[in-house]
Amino acid sequence: MKIVFYSSNSNIFDPETFKIDVLPSNQEQFREFSKKYPEHQFIFVTQLPLMFMPETSVILDQKLSYKEFAQKILELKPDIAVALSFWVSPYDWLSVNDALIKNELEKNRIKTYCNPLSASLISFDKYKTSQFLKIHKFNTPDSVFIDHDLYFCAGSHKEVLHNVYQDSILSQIKNLKLPLVIKDTVGMSSYGVTVVHTYPEAMGYLNSKRNNSNRIIEEYIQGEHFGLEVYKSKNDFLVLDPYRFTLNQYGITSPKQSTKTGPVTDKKYKISALKKEIKRLCSLLDIQTFCQIDLIFSGGKWFIIEINPRLSGMSFMYAKSFSRSIYDLIFDLCIQGNKKPYSKTPRAFIKDIKLDVMEKEKLTKLKNIPCVELLNQSNDLAARQEREKGFCECIIKGSEGEIKGAEEEILRMIES
Question: 128-168 pLDDT, tens per residue?
């Protein structure tokens, strides 16, 4: 069969100012994967950057519409197409674009593995996500939506004595338990998220210049933060064991700082009950491939915080926990429906630590340290703020003792 993996990008991308380095490279990982299936022809079609894609990918012009992108795939005459959706700032909406491509391909009778447009639109807008979770009785923080235009609409009308919409927002916010989280409804990666501890502090934020778009205010759930991925496999979902996330000084997960460890299997976390709920969630969303979910465990209950119907920062981690590539995971589970290699919890302990950006020579030395499985570094040379410059993700696998030893060696190497 001819199988096309595809992913699109809505943003301008300059390879001169944004660098991505993966060790072992996506090309190396694809080479090992493809050796297992000489009967298939694999083609990768994408737009820069080569996120999760090998260097031999067909790279399309950044200006193509989703219909033009789909046409380029159709010209290859594939038997199957598979979306490897990823993310870019400021809007986590690439799964929406890939779903539009899927619809065009299926109009032309190409079997396409990709999450539906409806799931991507629900997940993209955090308030829609919150409403969806509430309607279907999942545990999720109580929240209030703030329409930016209505919140400031009275400013230009001299006859308005007070903004009734603002009054209603204040009234609703006071029904939420402190502390509160304020975030953009369509933001990503915790950027711009603010935690406030009083109602006046919340209103001060909303009345400031920082409130420059629609916002959602939700209760801050005190508890342990986790994430997991789930894969659609035939008529069932394989929910992988969660990994624990560390928090920054503001009490939120930061993509540049958060450490992930796991798998977490302790009985006190009621993992089997969690997996049952995640399967229910993915069934309601009609997830067709894979999905990443952010969670908090608090008071003996699991709370769903965010849904991402795409590959994630956890994807490499899960793949390496099974000693496989991302291509293996997707091909085995989503296309072949073979859950057997993934049905048992991996024995190895996995830790994903974040390091500062480093030169390629140092990355190569780092990769040679025992237990270091994979390095994934992004570096934005044009970034104006420190938090936007990028980081190096280092995935370590082994016993807890081996991982501790590897971390000590990594620190010595970086400081030398």
Answer: 999 999 999 999 999 999 999 999 988 778 888 888 999 99
* Six token digits for residue 127: 């308030």
Which 3 state secondary structure label does DSSP give 365?
A: helix
Is the CB of residue 164 less than 8 Å from the CB of residue 201? no
End-to-end CA distance of the chain: 50
pLDDT, tens digit, for every residue of 197-238? 999 999 999 999 999 999 999 999 999 999 999 999 999 999
Order of strands, sheet of 111-113, starting from the edge strand that comes earlier in the sequence? 58-59, 41-46, 2-7, 80-83, 111-113
The two structure tokens encoding residue 14: 């300059």
- Work out the burial of residue 322: count CB atoms within 10 Å of its CB; fewer than 13 is exposed, 13-18 middle, 19 or more buried: middle
Query: Distance between CA atoms of 409 and 355, rounded to whole angstroms?
Result: 13
Residue ranges with strand state E in 27-122: 41-46, 58-59, 80-83, 111-113
Residues 6+ apart with CB under 8 A from 96: 117, 120, 121, 124
Residue 341 phi, psi dihedral angles, 5° rounding: -65, -10
| Cα-based distances in Å from 228 to 96, 122, 313 | 21, 19, 10
For residue 83, give the nearest of 239, 343, 291 by alpha carbon. 291
Q: CA quadruple 164, 169, 170, 172: dihedral positive or negative?
A: positive
Residue 224 and residue 162: Cα distance in Å, rounded?
41
Query: Which own/partner pairs from 133-140 qualify as long-range (CB within 8 Å, at least 24 positions apart)?
Result: 133/281, 133/304, 136/280, 136/281, 136/284, 138/277, 138/281, 138/304, 139/301, 139/302, 139/303, 139/304, 140/303, 140/304, 140/305
**Residue recorded with tokens 């995640």:** 278
Is 234:337 a contact under the CB 8 Å cutoff? yes
Please state the φ and ψ torsions of residue 131, each to the nearest 5 degrees.
-65, -45
Which uninterrupted H or E stretch holds 202?
Answer: helix 199-206
Pair 229, 308: CB distance under 8 Å: no
